[in-house]
Design a protein that fits this description.
The structure is a single chain. By secondary structure, the chain is mainly alpha-helical. Helices cover 59% and strands 0% of the residues. It is built from seven helices and no strands. The protein is elongated, with a radius of gyration of 18 Å. The chain starts with 7 loop residues before the first helix and ends in a 14-residue tail after the last helix.
Amino acid sequence: MTRRRPARRALYHVVLGAHLRKLRERQGVSIARIAEHFDVSQALLIKIENGRRGPSPASLAMYCEVLGLPMLDLLADVAELHREMVDPFDPLLRTALTPDMRALDGLALYAGIPRRHMPQALHRRSRTASGGRHTPTTSPRNP
């Protein structure tokens, strides 16, 4: 039987879960310790790390607290990993984004917000990086 490729949203959860597991293991923190500390089931954490369940904001906050990292930094890193996997030619991967824009991109990807609803500045950076034409958002004034 051929396995179907996971949908984009499901793939995001797989990338996010794998990244959380890698960070947790790198710091030597066990799933049992997180589960006990926050009074959640180990099964829930295993599902999150295996990408079978998307983490809630509360679950992400638990991981961030235990791992000692800001949630927006985590989401920005995961967004970059996800974009590399989905489309290695995505212009955003070759664009030097400010930390605020990286955080916004990561948060939007976590929330499932389509790119068309992102700020125009992100679109302009994306087009510039891909060699596309930049069209001004306002028309020039006539003298």
